[in-house]
Amino acid sequence: MVYLSNYPLGRLIQFQMEEYLEGRDFATEIDRMFALGRITPKHWMLQAIGEELSVRPLIEATERAAARVR
Question: Average model confidence (pLDDT) for the chain?
Answer without folding.
Answer: 88
